[in-house]
């Protein structure tokens, strides 16, 4: 989406909205994208919505992150900076809303066909393993392998198609205001068997009082599970994983901390880079799972990150507490 003929995404238009002082354009592309000769009067608090609205754009119905005006369409987002300012970016979208909808329907057909076949394989394997049919040990082990790999393939297929929809700005998110604790509890319990099999302790740290968040519980649970899984495949027996959360003003930060061997800086910097990791590691499953987690968090106006130190490594996500709509840049674009 938005690629040039050479297969590269066009450069984004950027503007820095500082807390004090006038907005600072980082190159001429943003004005070109907006079709303006100069920026409208803005302050940092106006952010993305203020800029696009002042420029005459409105959100495209049913497609997150896309704004349009008289046939001109932009993919736009923003990042909150540590000093209270905001970095707003724009990128032209060559696809019409009809083309996006058509592509989503195409992905839905492909998902239905692939997942339907895998589900049939899984169902028959489970039927034969229900104990009603006597099986030789070798046959039982074979069916257990089929069942395990069918589950793994179904999960991978779901992640692949969800990520593809997210790149089109069409990831389904049914958001409602709710407490975060039950979501984290569900993620930890679902990963409990995998952590036990890896001989790694999975601990839910005591949580402080947290404000409710407006989220799709399934999406955020998936993201936390992806963080846990990423750590588990790298953890050594006897290490510990900790899931924790803290309120940080207008945000809630959720961390999955691995206490153990530190991760090289180059690896921690590439955690959320799907293609780079897939080519380097020669497998897609974990890079895609983590990449989708990033897309899911960004669809909620949040951000993800990774840190390493001498005592281990941490994957974290932040979610806005405010009901004000916030948009982050898509996971396919790197600053």
Low-confidence stretches: 1-8, 323-335
What order do the helices and strands follow? EEHHEEEEHHEHEEHEEHHHEE
What is the top-level CATH class of the largest domain? Answer: Alpha Beta
SS summary, helix count: 9
What is the CATH topology of the largest domain? Heat Shock Protein 90
The overall pLDDT, averaged over residues, is 87
Number of strands: 13
CATH superfamily of the largest domain: Histidine kinase-like ATPase, C-terminal domain
Which CATH-level-2 architecture of the largest domain? 2-Layer Sandwich
Which overall shape is indicated by the principal axes computed on the Cα atoms? globular
What's the helical proportion of residues?
Answer: 40-55%
Secondary structure category: alpha+beta
Describe the protein's architecture and organization.
- With 335 residues, the chain is of the alpha+beta class.
- The chain has 3 domains: 13-94, 2-Layer Sandwich (Beta-Lactamase); 98-167; 176-320, 2-Layer Sandwich (Heat Shock Protein 90), CATH 3.30.565.
- The protein contains 9 helices and 13 strands.
- The strands form 3 sheets. The chain has a 6-stranded antiparallel sheet. A 5-stranded mixed sheet has the order 8-10-11-13-12. Strands 7-9 form a two-stranded antiparallel ribbon.
- α3 runs antiparallel to α4 (137-167) and α6 packs antiparallel against α9.
- The chain is globular, with a radius of gyration of 22 Å.
- It starts with 12 loop residues before the first strand and ends in a 15-residue tail after the last strand.
């Amino acid at each position: 989406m938005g690629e040039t003929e050479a297969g590269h995404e066009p450069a984004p238009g950027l503007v820095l909205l500082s807390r004090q002082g006038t907005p600072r354009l980082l190159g001429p592309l943003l004005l070109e994208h907006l079709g303006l000769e100069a920026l409208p009067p803005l302050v940092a608090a106006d952010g993305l919505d203020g800029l696009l609205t002042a420029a005459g754009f409105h959100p495209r119905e049913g497609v997150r992150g896309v704004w349009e005006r008289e046939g001109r369409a932009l993919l736009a987002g923003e990042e909150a900076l540590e000093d209270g300012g905001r970095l707003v970016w724009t990128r032209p979208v060559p696809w019409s809303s009809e083309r996006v909808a058509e592509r989503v329907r195409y992905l839905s057909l492909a998902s239905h066909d692939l997942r339907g076949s895998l589900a049939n394989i899984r169902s028959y394997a489970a039927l034969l393993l229900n104990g009603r049919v006597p099986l030789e040990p070798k046959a039982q082990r074979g069916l257990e392998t089929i069942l395990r790999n069918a589950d793994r393939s179904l999960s991978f297929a779901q992640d692949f198609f969800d990520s593809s929809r997210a790149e089109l700005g069409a990831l389904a998110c049914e958001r409602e205001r709710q407490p975060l604790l039950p979501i984290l509890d569900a993620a930890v319990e679902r990963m409990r068997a995998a952590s036990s099999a890896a001989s790694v302790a999975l601990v839910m740290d005591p949580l402080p009082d947290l404000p409710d968040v407006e989220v799709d519980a399934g999406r955020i649970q998936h993201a936390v599970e992806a963080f846990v899984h990423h750590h588990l495949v790298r953890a050594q027996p006897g290490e510990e994983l900790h899931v924790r959360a803290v309120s940080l003003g207008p945000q809630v930060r959720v961390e999955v901390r691995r206490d153990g061997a530190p991760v090289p800086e180059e690896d921690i910097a590439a955690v959320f880079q799907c293609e780079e990791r897939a080519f380097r590691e020669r497998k897609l499953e974990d890079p895609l799972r983590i990449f989708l987690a990033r897309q899911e968090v960004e669809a909620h106006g949040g951000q993800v990150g990774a840190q390493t130190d001498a005592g281990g490594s941490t994957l974290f996500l932040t979610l806005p507490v405010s009901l004000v709509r916030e948009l982050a840049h898509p996971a396919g674009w790197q600053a």
